[in-house]
Amino acid sequence: MSEISGSIAVWCKPANGAQSEIEAHFNYWHMTGDAQFKPTDGSKAVDFIEIGVLLDDPWTVEAIKIYLPIKVDRSSIEDCSTYFQEVSIAQGIFNEVLATAGPKAIGPKFIELSRGGGHTFARVHEFALDGKSLCRQEVLLEDKGDGTIITISEVALKEARDAATSSGRSYFRLRAYFRNGQSNPFIRTISTPDKLLQSSYDEIEYLDFRVNEARTLPDTIEQAMRIDRRIGEVKVKLIAFLTAVPVKSDLTTQSSQSHKMRLLEHKLWKNYVRGEIPIGMMVYHWKREAQRTHAGSASVAQEVTDFTAFVKLSTKRASKKIWLAYLIVTFLIGLLGNLLAGYIQNIIANRDISRSVQTMPSVNDGSRASAEADANTSAPGTVPTAKNMIKSGE
Fold first, then answer.
1. Which of 167, 215, 330, 349 is packed most tightly, with the most Cβ within 10 A?
2. Whether 215 and 348 share a structural domain
3. How far apart are CA 169 and CA 111, in angstroms?
4. pTM score of the predicted model
5. What is the dihedral of CA 154, 156, 158, 164, to 10 degrees?
6. Rounded Cα distance, 204 and 197, in Å
7. Per DSSP, what are the bridge partners of residue 65?
8. 90-120 residue pLDDT tens
9. What is the tally of structural domains in the chain?
10. Residue range 227-281, pLDDT digits in tens
């Protein structure tokens, strides 16, 4: 298959031929879309992507694997579980009325989310840390081509199973930051060649997001997915994608109508990100859910085999830096125009002078012409007098 970067892959390695279902959640935060935004912690704004996997049954999965088409190191990924201690964050992510509890002081670390009546909605796994980084036993990183496979290991799955004192779903959520200067396979900017000739301009960006699209996945990833599927089958029953962009960016084109859209509540979400988030972020949400078939009393989901979302953004760019660049370029163009005009005028003036010199009669030619004229005025056959000779000499 194609080695084109851009598609994410998510799949599970089943445990002992088990059959199960999962949901995959993806959030892309376009923090760099607001050129004026400065994080409060003094760092430089960078985009990041979040991946959440909701397991219906943690006993049926041996490992969760996520392929990102970027190079990821351990310092650029973090666990999102601690944010779920805030009820409003948990409710905002799942769009459910929930209560939260945990983590406990001893035993497996997790945040329990429950609906009304104390019914467990899901348990959010809290990854162990090795210093400030995620524990290597729970999260494995493997470079694969131009990207990275992130594996949530059997160790983490065992912790999640140990936490499940009763039936309930397990949730894992990781965040991966883009490094400064790193190539971004999801957001592309269309160059504006004449932007230096404008005091402000419209910058066009497009977000091309793909999940499990075979046509754009590396061969090695497709092969790994097929090998793991031989053991059993863990179906992806839902893929949800959310992107947060500055409100000043106009969404001009989208591949399909968004499921939901809203203005992000800054007071509620500002601490969800290190250094806070820009004021005024619009959230667009898409999802694709598998159809279900009924066999007797059982309901079986078909699988969401792939997912794509395309978004085109137009953002007005205007700043002191742009104004200064515009003024400098305008001044230089004016200066160059004046110099060129002066140069052309000098060429024309010199050419006119040269022509005048070439057409002007010389002094000797004038004297000779005058003498010939006087000679022609004398009568034929007349002997020149002394007076005439003197005049002719003049």
1. 330
2. no
3. 12
4. 0.78
5. -140
6. 17
7. 11, 151
8. 999 998 899 987 776 566 789 999 988 778 8
9. 2
10. 998 878 899 999 999 999 988 887 777 767 667 889 999 998 988 998 888 888 9
Choose among 145, 140, 120: nearest CA to 58.
120
177 and 325, same domain (yes or no):
no
Mark whether 183 and 243 lie in a shared domain: yes
Residue 377 lies in a domain: no
In this structure, the answer to whether residues 29 and 116 fall within a common structural domain is yes
Instruction: Specify if 393 maps to a domain.
Output: no
3-state secondary structure of 126: coil
CA–CA distances in Å: residue 387 to residues 384, 390, 391, 393: 8, 5, 6, 10
Question: Exposed e or buried b for every residue in 159-195, given b needs 16+ CB within 10 A?
Answer: bbbebbeeebbbbbbbbbbbeeeeebbbbeeeeeeeb
Which residues make beta-bridge pairs with 207? 187, 311
Provide CB contacts within 8 A for 113, sequence distance 6+.
Answer: 84, 90, 94, 96, 98, 99, 100, 120, 121, 122, 123, 124, 171
The answer to whether residues 354 and 229 belong to one domain is no
Which of 176, 168, 150 minimizes the C-alpha distance to 111? 168
- Residue 54 and residue 160 in one domain: yes
- Residue 357's domain spans which residues? 319-362
Nearest to 59, CA basis, from 136, 151, 173, 166? 166
Please indicate, yes or no, if residue 264 is contained in any of the structural domains.
yes
Find tokens 């080695």 and name the residue.
3
Same domain? For 265 and 346 the reply is no
